[in-house]
Every structure is written in structure tokens, then in C-alpha cells.
Amino acid sequence: MHHNARLTAHSRAALVRRVLDQGQPRKVVATAFGVDLKTVGKWVRRFQAEGVALT
If 39 and its partner were Cys, which of 5, 7, 35, 55 is the partner (CB 3.0–4.6 Å)? Predict the structure, then answer.
């Protein structure tokens, strides 16, 4: 993991679950995790494309 990374594998999985399973808006999730809206989109897209291994 990058030494400046704000998200761990566990928190990325939680982020993706909030968007995909709970239907929370990406902007709300970004604020809750202290990351940019683009970051939320990036992890959701990666999960959808490649599955659980990336979260």
C-alpha cells in the first residue's frame, strides 16, 4: 500500500458496499471517508470490473 494512502483494503470494501449495497450517494460516501469524489468512483469501478480482490 502507498504510504500516503487514505484507504486500507478494509475501508475500500466498506466504501464500495455503501455505494453498491446500501445505495448511498457517492458524494456522501466521499465525505464520510475523507476522500475525493473521484476516489470513490475509482474504487467502485475497480470493484465492478475486477471484483473483491481489489477491495
Answer: 35
Domain residue limits at 15: 9-49
Interatomic CA distance for residues 32 and 18, integer angstroms:
10
Q: Is residue 4 in some structural domain?
A: no
Residue that the C-alpha cell 465525505 belongs to: 31
Domain count, the chain: 1
* Longest Cα separation, the chain: 30
Contact by Cβ (8 Å): 26, 44: yes
Is the pTM higher than 0.70? The answer reads yes
